[in-house]
Amino acid sequence: MTGSAAPGQMGGHRPRKLVGAHRDWLLERAKADFTLRGLQAELAERGVKVDYRPVWTFAHDEDLSFKKKRASRRTAPAQGGKAAQAMEEVSEAT
Questions:
Q1: With contact defined as beta carbons under 8 Å apart, do 22 and 43 qualify?
Q2: Distance of alpha carbon 41 from alpha carbon 1, whole angstroms
Q3: What pTM value is reported for the model?
């Protein structure tokens, strides 16, 4: 018989692909609007086969991500603005 019934190694460290020239290109590219899927596609065009997760990790580590404001927050009037003042004037008049 050949081989062994012992289990092989599991896990371990995988080196990052987005380092060096790729990192420099990504940082320059990220100065304009981008999506993670879009960056993944652009990397593929450049010959870098990478999944979504490493692109997300890169953006997160480099602090390139941001949270969108909820739609209700963007369209709501500012607190204490003209609408609030108008309501106070109507309340005082009655």
A1: yes
A2: 47
A3: 0.57
CA distance 26 to 38: 12
Q: How far apart are CA 30 and CA 24, in angstroms?
A: 10
Torsion of CA 81, 87, 88, 91, to 10 degrees: 180
59, 61, 62, 67: CA torsion to nearest 10: 60
Cα 88 to Cα 20: distance, rounded to the nearest angstrom: 60
Walk along the chain (94 residues) in steps of 10 and give the mean pLDDT of each run. Answer: 82 86 93 91 94 92 76 59 60 62
Tokens 């420099």 -> residue: 24
How far apart CA 42 and CA 44 sit, in angstroms, is 5
